[in-house]
């Protein structure tokens, strides 16, 4: 199956996509992660994206589509994909229809994570991840079982994203409402949209998502 997780910054897309990946053998494709990889590698796309991402604005469709197309060319995605943070504009949604059509595939479900804006500022500002395996944590909501060591890999190096500060989060929320939220109606009109309350605890959201995806497989 191929899924889209739609939702504002901090909604839990990455947290839930990683759990769905482990539970259902799907491949998480986060355009945010792909772009951060391009920035770290210093590629042309990365150089163009870096400042835009640090301001919390959307990177151009052309750049995002390039990094995504490259990733989709790898063989592991045949298992099925969870798109996390893509599409984010009407242009990206149209391009995705073309990409899937060309592969003889379709998006089976679009799951919209519904949350309220004020809570998102706190979620994003408290977030950090394991530098070795990418597992996500939160100062308040999700601490590792052993202080300072990753639950998954035991790594002790944690890192924070440069765009995870209260001011940039507001810019990212504005971009979400202006450009991405309209996709909810786009997919609802096709009958592929399911909404889920993502203000609930991580485990409750996980169960809701697992039930939806379980019905598709
Ligand atoms: P991206 O990396 O996609 O970031 P984002 O959409 O802002 O989403 P986040 O990663 O911040 O949040 P999330 O929903 O994954 O939440 P998480 O699970 O971590 O994009 C970054 C930038 O790249 C963009 O600003 C843009 O510049 C560019 N970009 C990327 N894709 C693009 C595209 N398609 N087009 C154009 N530009 C693009 O959870 C957050 C925290 O909350 C964690 O600490 C977690 O532990 C905690 N948490 C999660 N769920 C819960 C819960 N239920 N209760 C309590 N805490 C929770
Ligand atoms: Zn780790």
Supply the number of helical segments: 9
Q: Can you tell me the residue ranges where pLDDT is under 50 for at least 5 consecutive residues?
A: none
Q: Mean pLDDT across all residues, rounded?
A: 96
**Into which percent range does the helicity of residues fall?**
40-55%
General form? globular
Ends distance: 7 Å
Strand order, main sheet: write it out.
2-3-1-4-8
List of distinct ligands in this structure:
BIS(adenosine)-5'-pentaphosphate, zinc ion
Radius of gyration using CA atoms only: 17 Å
Major sheet attributes: 5 strands, parallel
H-E order:
EHEHHHEHEHEEEHHEH
Let me know the number of strands: 8
Topology:
Elements: E1 3-6, H1 13-24, E2 27-30, H2 31-41, H3 44-55, H4 61-72, E3 81-84, H5 90-102, E4 109-114, H6 117-125, E5 127-130, E6 136-138, E7 158-159, H7 166-180, H8 182-188, E8 193-197, H9 202-216
Parallel strand pairs: 1-3, 1-4, 2-3, 4-8
Antiparallel strand pairs: 5-6, 5-7
The structure holds BIS(adenosine)-5'-pentaphosphate and zinc ion.
Zinc ion (ZN) is lined by residues 130, 132-133, 135, 150, 152-153, 155.
Characterization of the model:
With 217 residues, the protein is an alpha/beta fold. Helix content is 49%, strand content 15%. It is built from 9 helices and 8 strands. The chain has helices at residues 13-24, 31-41, 44-55, 61-72, 90-102, 117-125, 166-180, 182-188, 202-216; strands at residues 3-6, 27-30, 81-84, 109-114, 127-130, 136-138, 158-159, 193-197. The strands form 2 sheets. Strands 2-3-1-4-8 form a 5-stranded parallel sheet. A 3-stranded antiparallel sheet has the order 6-5-7. The radius of gyration is 17 Å and the shape is globular. Zinc ion is lined by residues 130, 132-133, 135, 150, 152-153, 155.
